[in-house]
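Review form for a predicted model. The reviewer records the input and the model, then writes brief findings.
Reviewer: anonymous (R2)
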Amino acid sequence: MKSIHLTPVSRLKNAQFWLLAIGAGLIAIHITLTCKSNIPSLLGSSVLFWIAVSSLIWEKRHSLNLESGVFPSFLGISIIAIVLIKSASLTSFGGFLFLSPFILAFGLALLASGFRGLKQYKGELLALFFLGAPKLLPSLLIKHITLLTAKLAAFILWYTGFEITRSGVNIYLPTGSIQVASGCSGVQIIFQQLGLAIIFILMFPLNRQQKILAPIVAATLGFIVNGVRVALMGVIVAKGNQEAFEYWHHGDGSLIFSMIAVILFGLFCWFLLNINETKNKQHKSIF
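Model under review:
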């Protein structure tokens, strides 16, 4: 019998195929669990982030160093296995689904390229980290952001003509009141916007100032849009419409504001890209 020897090119293609299959399977599992969790905001963010990160990895697939040692490969497989076992035994989803994309991607990166190759995926890992980062923030920081959100919502209500008084995170109107809880702090939408900013920086050529500006604008838009949402809920409470309050608080209404923040940041990105394109055309016309 003739022995079959794999050339380095064929081994590389085999590695790419298996890594692609494993990655696609892990993404499918996470999306499936997210669908079952009944957390609409997480589902939309997860699909968006997975598509963006997968696209970035696919574009640079030919330049990736897919060499991993025994220990990092074993560690990567172990991390993935632990997450999958945890997923199979979940009774309540909580913050696990927010953190698992980063953990799974980290394990897959170790399996693919080892410790030395992790730097190839630092941008993509950072973007996925922002998806779950709100679950890792200390409660003191969340309290500060919640208070700032309450102040912003109170200012919006006052500026639009409502008679309000504020005490901490409590906003009082003549016919009702709202309490801005930590879940309405806007932390999730702010970090979602930061993750999108990282993806934008990775996908398009930007100068240094634009790379600094993009995350600042993204986080600011997320904070302001969430403040408007809280102010709207204050108006609804003042009118005594409990059904509408539930819609904008827990229902699909909360997703609408998340989409608004994404669209506004998309318009900002479009504006930056148009500026760069104009500068490039002017530069080419000179020479």
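Findings: Residues 1-135 form one domain.
Further findings: Confidence is low (pLDDT under 50) at residues 1-10.
Recommendation: see findings above.
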